[in-house]
Amino acid sequence: MSEQDHAAQQGFDTLAVHAGAKPDPATGARQVPIYQTTAYQFRDAEHAAKLFGLQEVGYIYSRLTNPTVSALADRITALEGGAGSVCCSSGHAAQILALLPLMGPGLNIVASTRLYGGTVTQFSQTIRRFGWSAKFADLDDEAALRAAIDKDTRAIFVESISNPGGYLTDIPAIAKIADEAGIPLIVDNTLASPYLCRPIEQGATLVVHSMTKYLTGNGTVTGGVVVDSGKFDWSASDKFPSLSQPEPAYHGMKFHETFGPAAFTFFGIAIGLRDLGMTLNPQAAHYTLMGIETLGLRMPRHVENAKTVAEHLSRHDRIASVSYAGLADSPQRERAQRLYPKGAGALFNIQLKGGYDACVRFINALKLFSHVANLGDARSLAIHSASTTHSQLSESQQIAAGAGPDLVRLSIGIEDAADIIADLDQALAAAG
Ligand SMILES: *Cc1c(COP(=O)(O)O)cnc(C)c1O
């Protein structure tokens, strides 16, 4: 049995500990070493020429590849059920890295209205400097989504579980629309992690992550990754010339013809990381490998705590609503059970009856919760999105993104649920 076949039969928790790693051949080191090196000695001139010509795969320079980072990429590929991955310096870098092979001046993506605030800004403002643009559509309005796709659209971009509202996306339904349009579906799987959702199994072409969140799981790293399913036929139309036609940025290399299902991954390294330089450093990769080892232990605890806390808050007289899709009376209940059977994540909004001012008093009174612009930490975190992460948006964009002025976003950690609830109760009392 090949190593790959063997790995394909292993369970999620085994892959989380072992995939991509084996004892270091030089020293026997059992844990993945931090290969803190910039460059790698070539065997001889011929070896060097082959590496640069992509005729042989190996290490050249750590802006492109590094053994610690490669171990992490392989582990995430296994957990997401993909064909290959490229790690990079942040979740936002991963989004640009995913779009680079697909896009060009005058082309657009169609993106969900329910996205992380930073992503809305990246897509509505910053990518325009490259001549790219984004159109935003409500994923629950299929007609609007279809109408937004035009001849210049090169991808649909969604979040599996969306930040900040905790809205659950019906990935198979969106994948069908992308397939019919002949374009890839890109899923930001940050809030679900591959433990709660494997978008490729549900029809996604590409998966991106902010590894900063649940994958690392303890607030120590900024990192990102792009996973390719290897299933999209880049040569089926003339829409993706960077992959299907001779690529001038790599002396006329035809990536799809040369690398088949690995084309997107090779492009991401050979051109994306080479020319944009948004590389992950090996120390960050090491921390993320450590974090992933316990992903299968942490996620059920995050979900269980989130459910307990959301149920408590939904009965609280100072709370107008709780957005958690894992609640029995959530409008997303059916979707949660069908597509997210292991849980609806651990991030949701609470709507305070006292509006904006009560939200500010509540945030200031929290003690166990940290008031930070982060999520997916072992610690419970809270933020008032409207005055922070989503403050660049108009009020109508804030409301569309699930970040209205009377909402506080909670990221429920893995502490004792009773202590989390006690802190929320005292802060709600103080908010008046
Ligand atoms: C945090 C986050 C990002 C951005 O990731 P960084 O690592 O902070 O660049 C993108 N998408 C989602 C859903 C996020 O939560």
Describe the structure.
The chain has 432 residues and is of the alpha/beta class. The protein has 2 domains: 3-292, 3-Layer(aba) Sandwich (Aspartate Aminotransferase, domain 2); 296-431, Aspartate Aminotransferase, domain 1 (Alpha-Beta Complex). The protein is built from 18 helices and 12 strands. Strands 1-7-6-5-4-2-3 form a 7-stranded mixed beta sheet, sandwiched between helices. Strands 8-9-12-11-10 form a 5-stranded mixed beta sheet. α2 runs antiparallel to α4 (67-80) and α16 crosses α18 (417-431). The longest helix is centred in the C-terminal third of the chain and has 20 residues, at 295-314. Bound molecules: pyridoxal-5'-phosphate. Pyridoxal-5'-phosphate binds at residues 90-92, 116, 118-119, 159, 163, 188, 190-191, 210, 212-213, 222, 224, 375.
CATH homology superfamily name of the largest domain:
Type I PLP-dependent aspartate aminotransferase-like (Major domain)
CATH class designation of the largest domain: Alpha Beta
Q: How many domains would you count in the coordinates? A: 2
Strand and helix order: HHHHEHEHEHEHEHEEHHHHHEHEHEEHEH
DSSP summary, beta strand count: 12
Q: How large is the count of helical segments?
A: 18
Jot down its keywords:
432 residues; alpha/beta; Aspartate Aminotransferase, domain 2; Aspartate Aminotransferase, domain 1; 2 domains; seven-stranded mixed beta sheet; five-stranded mixed beta sheet; 18 helices; 39% helix; 13% strand; globular; binds pyridoxal-5'-phosphate
